[in-house]
Amino acid sequence: MCTHCNGFFSRAHFWRHKQKCQADSADDPLAIPVELMKPLSDNTHTNVPVEFRDNVLRKFSNDEAGRMCLTDKSIVIVGRRLYDKMKRKQDKLSEVAKSVRMDMRRLATLFITFKQVVGNNCEHEDASSMLVRSNFQALEDAINIRCTEHEQEGDEGLKAGLKISYYYLIKKFAKIVKVTHLQSGEDHKAAEVDKFTDVLALNHNILFGDALYKINKRRQTKLRRPENLPQEEDCQKLRDYTLKRMSELTADEYRVWSSTDYCELRDLVLSRLTLFNARRGGEPARLTMAEWQEAVADSWLDSTAVADSSDVDKELFKEFKITYQTGKGNNHLVPILFPSDTISAMEKLTDSTVRNFAGIHHNNLYTFPNSKHSMDHVSGWHSVHRVSTDANIKCPELLNPTKMRHLVSTLYAARDVPEQDRRLFYLHMGHSEKVNTAIYQAPLSHQEVTKVGFHLQQIDQSKQAWLIFLKL
Q1: Do 404 and 454 have their domain in common?
Q2: What's the domain range around 20?
Q3: Is 292 a residue whose pLDDT tops 80?
Q4: How many angstroms separate the CA atoms of 77 and 80, rounded?
């Protein structure tokens, strides 16, 4: 159903109607699935908030899991609670909605498999039946089925990341269902959920131990091997291509900007900032217009301190603009440095006239927006991949934000820099020294061979060393 004219249209062709329907109106029509017209009501759940409906429910696919997300009482309640909890992150609304939809779909697909395992042996009115301790064996079987790739054999077919995510999702699911029962005065049902969580905790190592082992092993070996890091020639080629295309697109002052040109420039700048700053893919992508204006106005710099800086530092202040945005989690900010080669392109991307020609919604607050009057921001990973493909990189799959963070962490660790500079680097990356060493940084194998190996060889070949040891 169209929220503007209340007409009913095919899901596949609603985009065509939307273009016609919004022609004479400032409001943007939204597509509301017919399933949402059905009442979702019982003693504890009577209304679906409009915001939750528009940002989460209306975007589910019309498949079995999607329909269950719209109709299953427990899954809808869980989605509402998760959305209400996380929607306070105003600069991450798009990511919050996607995270909630992902969790709801995972619960739905798990419940579908759970029902197949249980069959007709017990009642399963909604997904909360998975939280009955007598059904724990069926839940365990369902998790193993969902997290196994049947075309492969052995441990390599295990979807370790998905299995771990199921553990934390079930814990959140149980907590929300318990609170719902307590608010309804159903203390006996809340006590049953408590007993289920005890069973889950006792079986944690048995059910999820294989996934934890595989993730830790992969993190320490496969993800940190130098062969899996971006190649130097690919990084240089991508940099040269990005700067060249940005210069070409911004050179013509009288260019009439189309949506295609704007989206290409947007992806080029976002790719440049993401890789240059070694940021996570979702961080520069959600940069807001207000944060960019702070960088333009040098709001984060002390003018007195800049004036008293050395000549070398003053040149660096001229080369960069800086702003801060929220990073991963809730309690810290991370910096975004804008090299001078991106300033002209950023001015084009934030110009209201250019955005209007490109079909950007006038209320979109993001510096890197989606087109076609969307209110969301673009995906950083997809922007980097698009630019890497256009630049004809040999291995574009290796040149992504995550692997670039691994590469930058490794290269910085190999440099001879003061300890204070290292601490500043960890603050820029948004993680601790321990995380940088254990997760992002590839093992410093060259230093291991040339420094440690040299001394071990000397000890091994020295008879004098053994004599001193025996005397001790």
Answers
A1: no
A2: 1-30
A3: yes
A4: 5
